[in-house]
Design a protein that fits this description.
disordered C terminus; 361 residues; mainly alpha
């Protein structure tokens, strides 16, 4: 009986903490879904469909579920970084037609803006690329992004102040938070920008010549930025080979909701609920993947080629990621082999293994 009392005295507080933590997470996600639904309602009523900026899904989910995370720690940069890159992308879109070079130039310019502002808001790259892919020419676009992000920051500050607090995170949550923060920090790789631009140019040329613009859909550039910029970060997905399938499913759900429920509260809410569920089921730690489903709502004439293009584009990203890792591994092994100390040690080991002539006799 005494053992049971001791067990209960330790287990009940732990269970209460877990329940409190899970409740806070569910409330946060419900708040994100509601916010995205309200943005969709405002876009539907006003006719300004670009209020539904796709990366708003990634940003809102990350900062509300992790109000002490890397993106959430930069609320003002979260407003101004995507707004400035949106202005850059719109300027290019108004003067240059769609093409791989235009997309690569905007991506490079967006990276420069992020660097100058010392910002961690990678979805700003998508804000720059989107007007080129959509052929958007109206100056309402950056104003719509600015309005949506101001609303998100207001929601974040209110959530920090009035939302439920959890004193301690679980081991899994703490590990997930560290992983996402690592993906959102500045890269330490010297050549990742070259790899990123090469990927954008090659896939952009394929998209340009096939007419399948969404082979290089804007959130994919953000995913490439995070994957190429942080190849040393493990565990961003349990099985990376399934990542194209994950994005295909979220894109398909977004397309289905767009065609049946249109850009309404219920359509966007359904897409967000299903996309969050898919990312959880596949254990994906990539916030921009949430934008894939929402992107369907801002395409002028979405059709079945959208999810197919998304899966091909993400498949290309995975192939490029693996090839890059393989090539880097080859160069690393050669560099190690050329180190004098390593060669001397290897020679000594070889001599000790080889039998002498007397021993052979």
């Amino acid at each position: 009986m005494e053992v049971l009392v001791i067990f209960l005295s330790h287990s009940i507080p732990h269970m209460q903490t877990v329940m409190k933590r899970n409740t806070a997470r569910l409330v946060a996600e419900a708040l994100v879904i509601t916010y995205m639904g309200l943005i969709a309602y405002a876009a539907h009523i006003s006719g300004i469909y670009l209020l539904l900026f796709p990366e708003l899904a990634a940003l809102s989910h990350d900062v509300i579920t992790r109000p002490r995370g890397k993106w959430a720690s930069q609320p003002w940069r979260m407003i101004f970084t995507p707004t400035l890159t949106a202005i850059l992308g719109l300027f290019v879109s108004r003067h240059v037609s769609y093409g791989a070079i235009a997309i690569a130039a905007v991506a490079l310019g967006s990276l420069l803006i992020i660097k100058l502002l010392r910002s961690a808001i990678a979805p700003a790259i998508s804000a720059g690329v989107l007007p080129i892919v959509l052929d958007e020419r109206s100056w309402v676009y950056p104003a719509a992004i600015f309005a949506g992000l101001v609303g998100l920051v207001a929601l974040l500050l209110s959530w920090r102040r009035y939302g439920p607090r959890t004193d301690h995170s679980s081991t899994n949550e703490a590990e997930h938070s560290r992983l996402v923060d690592a993906l959102e920090t500045e890269s330490h790789d010297r050549f990742w920008v070259i790899t990123l631009l090469a990927f954008v140019l090659v896939l952009g040329l394929v998209a340009e010549h096939t007419g399948l613009r969404f082979l290089l859909f804007p959130p994919l550039v953000v995913m490439a930025y995070e994957v190429f910029g942080h190849p040393e970060v493990p565990g961003w997905m349990a099985r990376p080979a399934l990542f194209p399938l994950v994005c295909f499913l979220t894109a398909s759900i977004g397309l289905f909701a767009c065609l049946t429920l249109h850009g309404t509260f219920s359509g966007v809410a359904l897409t967000m609920i299903c996309s969050i569920g898919i990312l959880r089921a596949f254990k994906v730690h990539m916030p921009p993947a949430l934008a894939v489903g929402i992107l369907a709502f801002v395409i002028k004439t979405p059709n079945f080629w959208y999810p197919i293009s998304v899966s091909i584009g993400t498949g290309g990203l995975m192939m490029c990621f693996w090839v890059r890792g393989y090539v880097q591994g080859l160069f690393t092994n050669k560099e190690i082999a050329n180190i004098p100390a390593f060669r001397n040690q290897a020679g000594q080991i070889t001599q000790s293994i080889e039998p002498s002539a007397e021993e052979e006799l």
